[in-house]
Every structure is written in C-alpha cells, then in structure tokens.
Amino acid sequence: MNILEIKNLDVKYKIKNGYFQKEKVTNAINNLSLNVKQGEVLAIAGESGCGKSTLANAITLLTPIQSGEILFHDVNIQTLKGKKLKVFRQALQMVFQNPYASLNPKKKIKDILKDPLMVNEELCIYSEDYRPVYELSKNEINNIIEQALDTVGLDKSVMNLYPHEFSGGQRQRIAIARALILKPEFLIADEPVSALDVSIQAQIINLLIKLKQKFNLTIMFISHDMNVIRHISDRIAIMYLGQIVEIGNTEDIFKSPKHPYTKALMDAVPSFHKKSNIILQGDIPSPNNLPEGCKFHTRCRFCMDKCKTQIPTQIQCGENHYVSCFLHNPISKSDDKFKTE
Ligand code: SF4
Predict the structure, then answer these.
(1) Is 250 contained in some domain?
(2) Rounded CA separation 159/18 (Å)
(3) Burial label, 163 (beta-carbon count in 10 A; 0-12, 13-18, 19+)
(4) Could you give the CA distance from residue 315 to residue 332 in angstroms, rounded to a whole number?
(5) Are the CB atoms for 121 and 134 separated by under 8 Å?
(6) pLDDT of 60-118, one tens digit each?
(7) What is the DSSP string of 200-232?
(8) Does 96 lie in the same domain as 51?
(9) Cα(261) to centroid of ligand 1, in Å?
(10) Distance, CA 303 to ligand 1 centroid (Å)?
C-alpha cells in the first residue's frame, strides 16, 4: 500500500541576478512521479544539485510547487489547512543533514525536545486516557522527553545540557529524538550521516534501522553515498536533474543497474562494479539551462542522436524495476554497439 504518491511534480525557483536583476528560472524538479510504500525505506540517490533536498522540501511543504500532486494517504497535501495540516505535519517529520545547524544553540536539550510538543499541544497521543498535551503535567512531559532520549540511546542526564556540549553523532541522535517525539509515520532523513565520521555514520544508520522496525516507520532516506544506501534501503530511486531515471529494489539495482548514470554512481564507490570503471565526465548541467532530450545525454558515453532531442519514457526492465533510457527500449536492444555490459 502506498503511503505517499507523487504525480508529475514540478518545482521551479525564480532568482534575480546580475546588474539588471534579470530573472532566471531554476528547474529543480521536472515532471517527477514516485510512490513510497508503507513501512519501506526508499533511498533517493544522486549527485549534489540533482534536486533531492528540493523533493524533501516539497513533500514537507517547505517549498511551493508549480504543478503536480503530492498525495499522503490519498489526500493532496496542497489542500490541507488548519487541524488537518497539523495532523499531516505530526505524521511526517524530517531529520536534516547538519546536526550542528539544526539544533538551536541557545536552548537546552529538554527545551529542544519540548518544542514540538508545545507546538502540537492539542495532540492526544501520549496518555492512556488520550488527554491532549496541554493537559499533561510537567512530570508527564519530562517522562516523554526522557523516553525519547532513551529511544535514541541517550541518558536522561543530558536534558539540561546545550547542543555545543555534544559530538556530531550525539547531536544527530537528539535531532532524531526531536523528529520521533511526535510519533510520526513517515520520516524524511535528508543526508543524515554525511556530516558525520564514518564510525558514527554506522551508529546512526543502525539506529534508524532499529527505530524503523520498532515503530513501523516509513523512511525516505536521501543520500549520495551508495554504500550507506545499500545498507539501509529496501528500494532505490536514482535522481538526475530533477527526474527519476531508475527505480527498483535495492538488490536488483546493485546486481543489475540499467541506467548509465546509475552504473557511474556505483563505480564511484571503490568496492562496487570494478569491471567497467565508468568515470563520469564533466559536471551536472545547470538546472537554469536544462539540456534537450535525455537530461543525461551531455555526460553519457552511450549517447545516440535521438537522445539529444527525444525524452526517454520510463519502461519496466524487471520486477519492480524501471528505467528511463533508450538503451533499454526494445528497438535499440538488438544493436550490439549500445550494449552497456
Ligand atoms: Fe544515455 Fe541516451 Fe540512455 Fe540518456 S537515453 S542515458 S543519453 S543512452
């Protein structure tokens, strides 16, 4: 069952720059469609600038969309108002990339964890008799905060400390506790370990796996690190210039990647697919000036004439495995010169 459905999403930013303040349009997300199943970890992978964080911001209503629909439990989130919007915000929480910037340095940990409860004081999810948060006593609130800290492996004695007294890994645990304190169904983790040391990354990934099982969480895990993604995800969506170019089960994508961009991402990880050693040439094109046809054609070593003018449609290339590339179009399959293996 899908908990989230994204249909033909477009997100554009308008920016003014230069002496004449000329307006430019940045096409951050381009006609993107995607489903997330309840209880799964869906990884969104791609280089910096491919639109991963914009996608997260659109889903959490932090950035406006130009067209398309985002359905959460079959309800278009753009139509939500008042209490329904609050319920949505409680159900869908986010952990940000930088644990040094995402915690208020002036607040004690107990106040950082108390804030979401106070903002959602009408919530009735904490007491057995379903009293709203504003009816709970100070002791009851403190117990909720202690439990949240315990869930992420921190002792209650840290409640009176400030964020600067913690390491990066501990701060990210606090950020996760803050996201989970409202008992969400859906967690968006936007590069949650990229600012951390490798040893600490493993701790946070294992914690997210444990919490997913404990609370039956659905997680959208955004990362550019294929090693980390392989460890945590059930499915992977590969993103390039605001579009999904390949999506499938993690095992299938790692065993048999189809899109040239996916293969290049895998080859960027030292231990994977050393047979072909594809090295991506050039930088990701500017989203202010998107290439015609297949968006990847300016960097693709298999580029054909039609790739420069026609947009490849998404086709099924296995069970739950889809790719957008003319190489997997039945017409070009017979042509040996385009074989990628
Ligand atoms: Fe490369 Fe063409 Fe496939 Fe795009 S459609 S990835 S340019 S082969």
Answers:
(1) no
(2) 48
(3) buried
(4) 13
(5) yes
(6) 999 999 999 999 999 999 999 998 999 999 999 999 988 888 999 999 999 999 999 88
(7) HHHHHHHHHHHHHHHHT-EEEEEES-HHHHHHH
(8) yes
(9) 9
(10) 5
